Amino acid sequence: MSAPGRGSAPAHGRVLTVADVLTLPVVAAGLPQVAAGESQLGRPVRWVHITELTDPASFLKGGELVLTTGMPLPREPELVRRYVHELATVGAAGLVLELVRRYHRPPEELVRACRAHDLPLVLLSRDVNFLEVTQVVHELLLGNQVETLRRTQEIHETFTDLTLRGAGAAEVMRAAAEMSGRAVVLENQAYQALICEPSAHTVEEVLKNWERRSRATPPSDSAAVSGPEGWLVCPVEYRGERCGRVVMLPDRASAEPAFGEEDTTVLERAAMSLAISRLIHPAAWERGAHRSALLDLAEQRYRTAAEAAVRTAALGLPTRDCRYVAVLVDLPAGEGVAELEERLVRDVTAAGVSALVGELRAGRIGMLLALRPARQWRPTVELLGRAVLELIPQAIVSVGSEVTDLSHAARSFRDASHVAESALPGTSSRRPYHELSDIGLKQLLYALRSDVRIQSYVERQVGRLIDYDHRHNTDLVSTLRHYLDAAGNKTAAAQASDQSRQTLYQRLQTIERLLGGDLESGRRRTELHVALTALDVLRLDSR
User: Fold this and answer.
1) From 146, 212, 288, 380, which residue has the greatest number of CB atoms within 10 Å?
2) What pTM, to 2 d.p., does this model score?
3) How far is Cα 37 from Cα 106, in angstroms, rounded to an integer?
4) Could you give the count of Cα atoms lying within 13 Å of 359 in the half-sphere of its Cβ?
5) What average pLDDT does this structure show over 514-520?
6) H or E element: which one contains 22?
7) Are 59 and 49 in contact (CB under 8 A)?
8) DSSP 8-state class, residue 97
9) What is the spatial distance between Cα 361 and Cα 336, in angstroms, rounded to a whole number?
């Protein structure tokens, strides 16, 4: 026999168990010893019942902790066994026997019968006021009931408010995690974890090997504990069809029962709010999940590389033996982002490539392609690029550098962004996409066109020449451009500009006088070439 630990009453709102009752001072004063059913001390106590009847089970409904002095216990072993059998059958929480009046040692047959039924048998070696025990326990039970009603009302009000405000799935899941204090996950029918609120856990702890663990957890038609890990799961339906489920994970570090009624209420209300949220926001949850994951990768918002890997793996993106390429699609204002996004998802899936696809900001769709070692990215990106331009000819498709580790995806996104900033408007390409190798001097200057230092440089280098052309209706800027394009070859420059050599020489002398430099200098010609190229890209925005 073992003695239960000393302690205090459970916090309000938690189920009162047999073990909790034994720690109450009024019971602990009797020096309780557990003689049988020690593994069942976590049974909830619904009520306390004092009885000196030989058939107390006929007055019980289940969940009662029975208190007795032992006076009515029969002497015959068969009747003792029947006494215990009836208590176990009706679902009594346990039997407390006082060893003061009739017994000073428990009857062996009683101990054996309780052990056979795994019914908690608690022995009190000192006198205990049973009426005081019932008073204390019933006050706790009633207090818990009031607290439970209050918490249930609070849960309903919270999720009702979320629904009325049109909250999205992420906000609903965050509320579920906060109210339960447990990790919660929303997954789709493909066992992909779309939203994870880890609560006191880490993302790695919650989502590691998610698909394998989730497939081992059978679905249910209502909120229920399921699977080898004892998850609390609840289905989510949209327009009469199941579209996923919300999962609450147990706290393995706690000795308390895995889930209570309050947890079930939270999960059921979360599932209901998610269904309504889906009606208000008809876009697939996958799109929001991909968008969030892409932003986290592009902006390096993950705490660790392991967290990034487990999060994307839970969305179905391979994280081993892959190369990754970021692709950005920038659209003119007002174009159909949603339609194009769905088209890209279909096309990349049809191509047999795993990818995350989502809108990163207004007018920009991002993709992260995961390619197996034997597969090159160019054919896939060309296919996607042509699909984009087929729908929106003015769109710009940009590709970043190829990386071999998911933790380096941010670099690929940065490179793709630099390519997008450098893509010249209104220019055609032999390919339906732009890549890093396309960035030349003109593209680089176009990307930097908003920098006032570039604008000031152009003005310092060729501003006087531009002013002279405006005042005298000449075209010296064009003459200078032909001369620089010909790398200082005056004969070639004269032919390209359709001028005589003498006219060209005169204009070059005027240019040298206005700009105050020697055009024969290679350094000077380079400076002027950069200035005229920058002038061209500055004028692109004014067209």
Assistant:
1) 380
2) 0.66
3) 15
4) 18
5) 87
6) helix 18-23
7) yes
8) E
9) 13
Q: How far apart are CA 231 and CA 229, in angstroms?
A: 6
How far CA 238 is from CA of 192, 242, 245, in Å, comes to 17, 6, 11
Q: What is residue 374's predicted lDDT score, i.e. its pLDDT?
A: 83
440-443 contact pairs (CB < 8 A, 24+): 441/530, 441/533, 442/533, 442/536, 442/537
Residue 225's SS3 state is: strand
> What one-letter code names the amino acid at 524?
R
Task: Decide the pairing of beta strands 231-238 and 224-226.
Answer: antiparallel
Q: What is the spatial distance between Cα 337 and Cα 334, in angstroms, rounded to a whole number? A: 8
The CB density around residue 486, as the number of other CB atoms within 10 Å, is 16
| Exposed e or buried b per residue across 463-478, where buried means at least 16 C-beta atoms within 10 angstroms of its C-beta | ebbeebbeeeeeebee
Which of these, 47, 46, 107, 41, lies nearest to 71 by C-alpha position?
107
CA distance 519 to 508: 8
Which domains does the chain possess? Answer: 18-139 (3.40.1390.20), 165-282 (3.30.450.40), 286-439 (3.30.70.2730), 447-540 (no CATH)
| Cα torsion angle, 242, 244, 250, 256, sign | negative
List the alpha helices (DSSP H) in 208-260: 210-215
3-state SS track over 158-194: HHHHHHHCCCCHHHHHHHHHHHHCCCEEEEECCCCEE
Residue 9 CA to residue 20 CA, distance in Å, equals: 6
Task: Using alpha carbons, list the distances in angstroms from residue 318 to 91, 310, 372, 471, 511.
Answer: 50, 10, 9, 64, 61
Q: Is 64 left (phi over 0), alpha (psi -120 to 50) or beta?
A: beta
Tell me if residue 396 falls in helix, strand or coil.
strand
Model confidence pLDDT, tens digit, residues 133-162:
888 887 777 766 545 556 777 888 888 888
pLDDT band at 543 (very low <50, low <70, confident <90, very high): low
CA–CA dist 196, 174 (Å, integer) = 9
pLDDT tens by residue, 27-43: 888 899 999 999 898 88
Closest to 348 measured CA to CA, from 314, 385, 320: 385
Report the pLDDT value the prediction gives residue 176, as an integer from 0 to 100: 93
- Amino acid identity, position 104: H
